[in-house]
Amino acid sequence: MSKSATPAKPSGEPEIITILLVDDIPETRENIKKMIAFEPDLKVIGAAGTGREGVALAKELKPNIIIMDINMPDMDGIQATTLITESVPTTAVIMMSVQNDPDYLRRAMLAGARNFLTKPIGMEELYNTIRTVHIRNKPIAAQYAAVVAGGLDIRRAPADPTSEGRAGHIVVVYSPQGGAGTTTIATSVASGLMKEGIKVLLVDADLQFGDIGALLNLQSQSTMVELVPDVDDMDVELFEKLVTPHDSGLKVLLGPSRPEYAEEVQRSPDALSKILQKVSGNYDYIVVDTSTHLDDVLLSLMDMASRVILVCTPTLPCVKNVRFVLDLFDKLNYPADKVMLVLNRNPEDRNLKKLAIPPEKIEQYLKRPIVGKIPTDEMFVWRAVQRAVPVVASERDKTKSPIKELLDISNRVHHSLMPAEEEVAVEADDKKKRSGLSLRLGR
Ligand SMILES: Nc1ncnc2c1ncn2[C@@H]1O[C@H](COP(=O)(O)OP(=O)(O)O)[C@@H](O)[C@H]1O
Ligand SMILES: [Mg+2]
Fold it and tell me: What are the start-end ranges of the H helices in 67-103?
């Protein structure tokens, strides 16, 4: 076992993690108890054979951790966990199930479980899970303890106590043409927006063939599919447990893990928007990668978005289709500054340049300015894929193309949505000067 994971008390004594076991099979309880007995920092302080007994013991003993079987007669583990998370919020529940229980992960998460163990349980897995859950739960437990000590009724706390009051601007990246670079741009814009103090969520809303997990090398069992069925009951804490962190600090909400699961999300077209709306207070920006398919899920996200980055390549089919999309946006009454037209795969090579549609022509045809021109560069893009990072994070030198252009786009998004205080001050100052001059000119 790795002692480094064991939190030490200030005295130097290792902290004891107290555990309650709830399982209807006595043999399972005994086995887990025996395994735990080997570890000096873990201690079983009680065992229950039914869900009901488990709830009663949880209230009485207030253990740090409960290891809870999911399938039990009388009250099952899900029901018991729901009751425990309400009445003993300082305790963290780890749910146990046999391998072939289909959607226990989702049900357990929604009940408030913090982690899972699949039977048969290995020793190291058991120890690691208990210690990790305990370390993560400590700040939450301390918060609740403080509230209780202050004499407040935690159930009367605001509906969303974890909301950080952030702006939650949604930035959708879209192209009507496959392979235009939507995903490449979405990951880079998300990464570029992530400055000090700015929290960014990247959402893979390419529901059938989402690439973000593969591009950023993220593996997780948890995707938006688990959240969609109970969107009205979803709380921010559950959401935060389901997002997958990337090494860079970016949080990622992965899309369905298989194309056939896309339907689960499409069945209730505004579920994903509702989820993002609910968690928006915890993020400054939510960047959404999309597929070419303009369905109700996507339209609902676009309606909510503060900015839509519309990606075009300098080819005839793409320009033609972008024109259709812009017409549609007009019909939807999207304000002009909501849509940012970006040209990707702009050729550098002189011969290719002759074949591509020049940016000025595209602007003329679409009657829109292009706010960013990203050159074609296989080298950087491929290297980023190999390193499982966004293109803008693949190289230290941020002045090189196409990193520079991609960062310019994220800076534009940032400045248009959150102008820095100094800039606002300068603008106000400018206005004052102007009015001073107008005054002097007698206007
Ligand atoms: N500016 C670029 N230069 C070179 N290759 C690019 C560029 N942008 C995207 N690509 C490549 O094009 C392919 C499609 O990009 P991707 O971002 O997956 O597009 P989409 O999400 O629109 O289908 C990928 O192989 C990607 O590496
Ligand atoms: Mg894509």
Answer: 77-87
Instruction: Give me ligand 1 centre to Cα 21, in Å.
Output: 51
**Together in a domain, 201 and 338:** yes
Residue 438 lies in a domain: no
pTM: 0.65
Q: What is the spatial distance between Cα 119 and Cα 125, in angstroms, rounded to a whole number?
A: 11
> Does the CB atom of residue 181 touch ligand 1 within 6 A?
yes
Residue 106 belongs to domain spanning: 3-155
| 271 close to ligand 1 (CB < 6 Angstrom) | no
Q: Tell me, yes or no, whether 433 lies in a domain.
A: no
Q: Is residue 364 assigned to a domain?
A: yes
Mean pLDDT of 97-123: 80
Which residues, 6 or more positions from 85, have their beta carbon under 8 angstroms from its beta carbon? 93, 111, 112
Q: Are 390 and 216 in contact (CB under 8 A)?
A: yes
Same domain, 370 and 328: yes
Check residues 330 and 289 and name the one with the higher pLDDT. Answer: 289
Specify the residue with its C-alpha closest to ligand 1, atom 9: 181
Number of domains in the chain: 2
**Per-residue pLDDT tens for 42-87?**
999 999 999 999 999 999 999 999 999 998 988 999 999 989 988 8
Report pLDDT digits (tens) over 251-282.
Answer: 999 999 999 999 999 999 889 999 999 999 99
End residue of a domain, out of 101, 131, 155: 155
Contact 378 CB / ligand 1 (< 6 Å): yes
Q: Tell which residue, 307, 295, 292, has the closest CA to residue 267.
A: 295
Q: Given ligand 1 and candidates 173, 175, 182, 184, which is best to mutate, with the most ligand atoms within 8 Å of its CB? A: 184
Q: Which atom of ligand 1 is nearest to the CA of 185?
A: 17
